[in-house]
Design goal:
By secondary structure, the chain is of the alpha+beta class. The chain contains three helices and three strands; from the N terminus they run H-E-E-H-E-H. Helix 1 packs antiparallel against helix 2.
Length: 107
């Protein structure tokens, strides 16, 4: 069991790093949401929402961006589990995407 002071420290540090990354994701019409956290084992669940959930680059954003930054700034993070919110239709996502947004083409 993780001690209370260490838990609080990790919660605050995670929130700071997520808030540091969030504006870049929001600039592309999406958002970054923490879905679950195992503070003891260092496993963080994050989801890309909005236009980022239907972007062809979402995997790269999660792996090369979010995971790399979390592991680089928080030495206790061992794994980042990415989720993509693909609830928007192609048309909805395409209308709010901007910046580096590359929509996944409908078949």
């Amino acid at each position: 069991m993780i001690e209370e002071s260490l838990l609080k420290e990790r919660e605050e540090a995670l929130e700071k790093v997520i808030n540091l990354m969030r504006p870049a994701v929001q600039a592309d019409g999406g958002d970054l949401k923490v879905t679950n956290v195992d503070y003891e084992n260092g496993i963080i669940g994050v989801a890309l929402e909005g236009a980022c959930g239907s972007c062809a680059l979402s995997g790269a954003t999660l792996n090369a961006g979010v995971e790399r930054i979390l592991k680089g700034r928080l030495d206790w993070v061992t794994e980042v589990v990415g989720e993509v919110d693909d609830s928007l239709s192609y048309e909805e996502a395409n209308s709010i995407g901007s910046g580096a947004y590359v929509p996944i083409r409908p078949y």
